[in-house]
Each structure stands twice: as structure tokens, then as C-alpha cells.
Amino acid sequence: MCLGIPMKILEINQFMARCEAKGIERDVSLFMLQDESVNIGDYVVVHVGYAIQKVSETEAETAWQIYDEMLSLEDQASAGEHLSEKDNA
Predict the structure, then answer these.
(1) pLDDT of residue 76
(2) Domains of the chain: which residue ranges?
(3) Can you tell me the distance from the alpha carbon of 61 to that of 43, in angstroms, rounded to the nearest whole number?
(4) 5-88 architecture in CATH?
(5) Per-residue pLDDT tens for 26-65?
(6) Taking the CA of residue 79 as centre, how many other CA atoms within 13 Å lie in the half-sphere pointing to its CB?
(7) Which of 49, 51, 58, 88 has the highest Cβ tally under 10 A?
């Protein structure tokens, strides 16, 4: 499964932007959004190094809440698998 990650634009240099999410920075191509107005401080959805959609800060925060819930559930499931493996040993 592929996910687009919401990131905040920190810097723009023509069709490239330095973006940040959860303390991680990446260089992102803005080429696919060349017909939209994007500015420093805006949020974009990034997929395989390309900004594919501009989103509001609220939409970005909502997406991260959902991703955090998914990761938490995955961690819980992994912990449960490890416990059952120990019980079977």
C-alpha cells in the first residue's frame, strides 16, 4: 500500500521545495503543482518525492492523526504476536 505524506513547505527554489513532517526533512519536487500557487508554510501531500496535492493545515493534521493511530495498532498487533510466540515456545 502506498501513502501520500502531508508535509509543510520550509523553502522553495523554483520547482523544488524543502519540506518537513514529524521532524524529518526532504527535498520534494513541485513540478506536478506548477499550475497552483504554493508558498512557504503551505502543506502538500508528498508521494515518491513529488508534491501531488496542496492541503490545508487541518487536513494535514487529520492525516497524521490517522497515520499515528495506524502505527499504534500495528505496534500493538506486533507486540501481541511476540507474546503468543513466547507462549508457544
Answers:
(1) 85
(2) 5-88
(3) 10
(4) Roll (2.30)
(5) 999 999 999 999 999 999 999 999 999 999 999 999 999 9
(6) 6
(7) 51
